[in-house]
Amino acid sequence: MLPTYLTEDQLAVVETALDFAQEHLAPQAESWDQQKHFPVDVLRKGAELGLGGVYVREDWGGASLSRADGVLVFEALAAGCPTVAGYFSIHNTVAWMIDRFGDDTQRARWLRGLCSMDTLGSYCLSEPGAGSDAAALRTRAECDGDHYVLTGVKQFISGAGTSDVYIVMARTSDDGPHGITAFVVQRDDEGLSFGPNEKKMGWNAQPTRQVILDGVRVAADRRLGAEGDGFRIAMKGLNGGRLGIAACSLGGAQSALDRSRAYLADREAFDAPLIESSALQFRLADMATELAAARALVRQAAAAVDLEDPQAPQLCAMAKTFATDTGFSVADRALQLHGVHGYLSNCGIEKIVRDLRVHQILEGSNEIMRLIIARGLIGAAR
């Protein structure tokens, strides 16, 4: 049952995303996970519904939705498969970055392909020695006439090796965060290569590889924004990415809760359905209440981003922390409610648990989110 407080347009958006998730994601989610299959054909079917350019303006082929709409979309998609929903979120961050910070030539060059998902996108910020401390990245971009030469290694990049477009954050000067610049690198650029697909606990239905830049030469017209704008672009993108991952945690956890409710209604012990046990009802009630609270915070943060509220970064950090912690906790309790059946791969619950665990690390670990929140509080008190 969809919330009555959504607008008619939002209800239509959610229904479309839910229908797509139930028809195209949920039936294959477990096999994709087991086979480590990245369902590019299914991504492109989603793009036909506007899922490849959620935030991109209609002039450039996008759906022109708000962040408040977007979190509804990614929560609905994650009900079918958190891994694929997570990649949709990442791809949409790339498309939004180009639309928001690119010029018309760059928009014309890449956005329509990204919106159709004929062109897939990844963004490259983390490095082997610079994960949470993004300002410490070492990848260099040396100016050479009307070109830049990029050298370095990016790590834990979702979609790497399959994606066609990579937004790479590289250092153009040693001026800390002010010395970082964003570039658009293409998969066929000479000097670009990829590490092996990482072996992971979850998120197996999308590849995760190193992106290796060995003297990759790109024209100056592939610079996104001005020199030194890269850190600001990355942080703006991460606000949206954190909302996307938070919403994916909600969707995965809601699916786990729904499965638990159905399981307890169907399973009997001591001559009565388990759902009639007050103790188990209380567990379901707690799980539902915590998800409702997390959902409210995610939507508040999304509204703050849409309104360009100065507190949006702190609210996004709060939403990401609370929703991903809550989502994993709810999924873990759902597995416990299923007993040993929840531990079996054919149940589907253990996959949700594995997928949601990494959400507490992605887009900035939850420890870093707490640091962002604390800095906002301390700054406001001064």
Q: How would you concisely characterize the structure shown here?
A:
This protein has 382 residues and is an alpha+beta fold. Helices cover 52% and strands 15% of the residues.
Principal-axes geometry comes out as globular
Order of helices and strands: HHHHHHEEEEEEEEHEEHHHHH
Number of helices: 12
- Rg, nearest Å: 21 Å
Uncertain residue ranges: none
Residues in helix, %: 40-55%
Largest sheet: 4 strands, mixed
Description:
By secondary structure, the chain is α+β, with helices and mostly antiparallel strands. It is 52% helix and 15% strand. The protein contains twelve helices and ten strands. It has helices at 8-25, 29-35, 40-47, 67-78, 82-101, 104-116, 230-266, 278-306, 312-337, 340-343, 349-357, 366-381, and strands at 121-124, 140-144, 147-158, 165-171, 180-186, 192-194, 208-219, 223-224, 268-269, 272-273. The strands form three sheets. Strands 1-4-5-8 form a four-stranded mixed sheet. A four-stranded antiparallel sheet has the order 2-3-7-6, with no helix packed on it. A two-stranded antiparallel sheet has the order 9-10. Helix 4 runs antiparallel to helix 5 (82-101), helix 7 runs antiparallel to helix 11 and helix 9 (312-337) runs antiparallel to helix 11 (349-357). It is globular, with a radius of gyration of 21 Å. The model has no long low-confidence stretch (mean pLDDT 95).
